[in-house]
Amino acid sequence: MQTSNSFRLDDFIAGWIGGASSVVVGHPLDTVKTRLQAGKGYRNTLHCILTIYRKETVMGFFKGLSFPLATITVYNSVVFGFFSNTQRLISKYRYGDGWHPCGMLDLTVASMLTGLVSVGVGAPVDLVKIRLQMQMQTQTVLAENLHLAGSVSDGTNIPLRSVDIPGQRLYRGPIHCISSILQTEGLQGLYRGAGAMMLRDIPGYTLYFIPYSVFCNLLKPDATSSPHPCSIWLAGGLAGSISWVTATPADVVKSRMQADSQRQRKYRGILHCIIHSYKTEGAQVFFRGASVNAIRGFPMCATMFLTYELSLQFFRSLQDKENIFVVKE
Q: Does pTM top 0.70 for this prediction?
């Protein structure tokens, strides 16, 4: 699992395992967050949860889970693997030792570079996930619009027998969603909202890894010992909540850009999305879903960091045993 003193593959594998555990924990609230930010008709978080449950049952909260479970694991593998190896590369360049503790500036540079790299992998994943999560609401809105279109002033409904909205689905699944986007919007369609994602992830990962490192150091009994699993869990959860809450305005813009399909294009770009959202819904729209992000961010990131660190410890203990075995031989 180790190719050189500074580059290690076990960070990528541990990141993959951590990503899988966090997806299962965080996806239900991620669905709620997406509906609040990009959808219509929800008064608050509780109303959104109850509406999803009533119309779509518990399965509605797990809509689009298969795709992020298969892809966000790879995404987190890249994020954690790249961040850890970049830290060691910076330490080796600055101090001559890849395992030298990183300073605050080193952590900031590694975090920002990780945020930039993450967009290349994460933008298509996020876009497909959001399109699938928004699919049920889009059908409901279309059905309501058609009901209004089929009504006349005296209250009589004109039947629209040729339309069966509940039975129709724009996307049959993740692969069909990707194929449809490529056909209608081209390759650039998969990266719609990537600019807003950069605005979210570059500062977002800085406010993710730095607080985690600071909290872990504060919660350690002494400078030489490793943090306890409970400390890792708490530090990861707090870092996740801080990162997600501060990233909410950019996340709102990203979600709206990505939910905006070619067939019903509403926003011409990031600036237009910001201005239009502000004019129609006020400044508070950019903090829609902040409470969900804070609540969702804690267990999701706590689980991710804990699973990542424990996996890393396991892999490195195996490596140490192999080294001992080789020495004895």
A: yes
